[in-house]
Amino acid sequence: MVCLYSAEPAGPDDMLLAMMGAVGREIGAFVRRTRAEAELRAHRERLEELVRERTRALERSHERLRQAERLATVGTLAAGLGHDLSNLILPIRARLHSLAESRLSVAAAADVAAIGEAAGYLQRLASGLRLLAVDPERAAEREGHTDLAAWWRDVAGVFRAALPRGVRLEGSCPAGLPPVAVTASRLTQAVFNLVQNSAEALAGAGGQRGTVTIDASLARPEDDGEEAQRPAPRPPAVILRIADDGPGMAPTVAARCFEPYFSTKVRSVSTGMGLALVRGWVEAVGGSIHLRTNPGQGTEFTLRFPVAVGVPAAAPSARTPAPLRAAITVDDRRTVGFLGAMIEAASARAAAWEGDGVPDAELWVVGGAAARPERIAAFLAQDPARRVVALAESHGQPPPPDADAGAAPRVCYLGRRPTTSALRRSLMAALEKPEEGPPPPPHPAPAASMA
Amino acid sequence: MPISVLLVDDNEMLAEAMPRLLARDARFEWAGWIEDPANLVETVRAKAPGVVLMDVDMPGVETFDLVKLLAAECPKSRVVMFSGHVREDYAEAAIDAGAFGYLHKDDEVGELLNNLERVSRGEVVLSPLVKRTLWRK
């Protein structure tokens, strides 16, 4: 809009108005054009920024893919080597075992024992090498669990063997910790990466001697640092620390070390993706990674892994709940054997008996006439704590109502000849039980029988 | 009466070591070694071993089909898998096919012998690593 002011009173001047109108239109056109050009420039700049962002994202994902392929290749190679090594060591171990059973002189027996120790070490090395493999069928797998003490026995030899001269690996993972919710191979790759970083930092600091230390413990509230102030308690977790007494990192390096591409090493040695990948792996299973370092004060990575839900600790701890009591009344002896072995796998939480002499059992695996739906319905009605895996058809019989919403169904019909997979999965679902809680009450009724 | 054990495996060094191992243990006797399982059923019929210790990965062999065939044709000879590969699907397929267990080649030798005895009694045996793998959710 163009306004015209005059110092003197004046009447309408059509000519002046026409001229001013023309000037106003020109000014308006100029302003519109300028605005349009500014918008166009802003759009172009935004577009260019978007292209740059997309290009960076593509480069990142390409690099991740390249790194993953390289890891997969190295892992496959390591696993093949471990497998072949195992095939060689097994006959040696078999011969040593038979030699040890022979009448040997004291000196020969000592030799056999020493060779046996070396073979045992090689065996653990082979087992550890296999854990570096990325199973292509499970590359994207986020489920799995690892008993840290058993894992450490397998991998410690490999980790030590990969260290440069003068660098020692100390520490251990104690037995009795709950299993962590990460696959053994992924855990191995992550920790191997961190141990290698520490070793390279130590070796790079003038080839000095140094120590890399690993230890594991149950997470305590103070391990959460500032996050301990959060209103809701965090789920149970295990802390795995990988520390070294090397040169540490400068604050500027520490601040960027988890960034993709960031590296203090020359490019031929590192792509700068190691720590970014480790963080990705840890976070993918619901864990976290924390770095504490200062120049001259070493480096400590703290990995926090959630405890695997529904998986018993390998060794019973003081907090082990009363075992779930299971009874198996199935005709087929091989099925009974498999069920027994599976229940044994959950040994800290379950105990199994063959036959129906366990009136207060909570879990019943039944077959034959005892698995008829009407008998199961009557059996479940006697005790609300009971659950049944039935090797029979349900014949459309609905399961009895379960007062405990969210709990596993109280009865599960698998058909007369279920697959091992169905049997295993239903058993695991049935063995789901809260870690805490009172032991099961003794069954008040007279001896129950499903026979 | 000792438990006779037949080994089906393409590892020749293992085949040479096994008879020496079993010879030291009164519970067992060596039934022999089969490298190529083309005539496995006939061999098992003829030798009637108590336990068939069978590798999972043999070149050109559909192992679990063989286990199924043996379970049907020679039910008194109990098959147990013996492998360096522990996979959930392998272990499940083995049990489905009629095997009496799945043992890992990294197991302690004494534990292996005890498990062979258990298989001969009709028990199902799984190595600790196999149990952990099968228990995975």
What does this structure look like?
The complex is a heterodimer of chains A (451) and B (137). Chain A is of the alpha/beta class and 451 residues long. Chain A is built from nine helices and ten strands. Chain A has a five-stranded mixed β-sheet with strand order 1-2-3-5-4, covered by helices on one side. In chain A, strands 7-6-8-9-10 form a five-stranded parallel β-sheet, covered by helices on one side. In chain A, helix 1 packs antiparallel against helix 2. Chain B is of the alpha/beta class. Chain B contains six helices and six strands. Chain B has helices spanning 12-23, 40-47, 63-73, 88-97, 109-120, 128-135; strands at residues 3-8, 28-34, 51-55, 78-83, 101-104, 125-126. Chain B has a six-stranded parallel β-sheet with strand order 2-1-3-4-5-6, with helices on both faces. In chain B, helix 2 (40-47) runs parallel beside helix 3 (63-73) and helix 3 (63-73) packs parallel to helix 4. The model of chain B has no long low-confidence stretch (mean pLDDT 92). The interface between A and B is large, with 43 and 37 residues.
Unreliable segments of chain A (pLDDT under 50, ≥5 consecutive)? 266-272, 315-320, 401-405, 434-451
Q: Indicate the proportion of strand residues of chain B.
A: 15-25%
Secondary-structure element order of chain A, N to C: HHHEHEEHHEEEHEEHEEH
- Assembly state here? heterodimer
What is the topology?
The complex is a heterodimer of chains A (451) and B (137).
Chain A: H1 14-100, H2 106-130, H3 148-161, E1 167-172, H4 184-204, E2 210-218, E3 237-244, H5 251-256, H6 274-284, E4 288-293, E5 299-306, E6 324-329, H7 333-345, E7 350-354, E8 363-367, H8 373-382, E9 387-391, E10 411-413, H9 420-430
Parallel strand pairs in A: 1-2, 6-7, 6-8, 8-9, 9-10
Antiparallel strand pairs in A: 2-3, 3-5, 4-5
Helix pairs in contact in A: 1-2, 2-3, 4-6
Chain B: E1 3-8, H1 12-23, E2 28-34, H2 40-47, E3 51-55, H3 63-73, E4 78-83, H4 88-97, E5 101-104, H5 109-120, E6 125-126, H6 128-135
Parallel strand pairs in B: 1-2, 1-3, 3-4, 4-5, 5-6
Helix pairs in contact in B: 2-3, 3-4
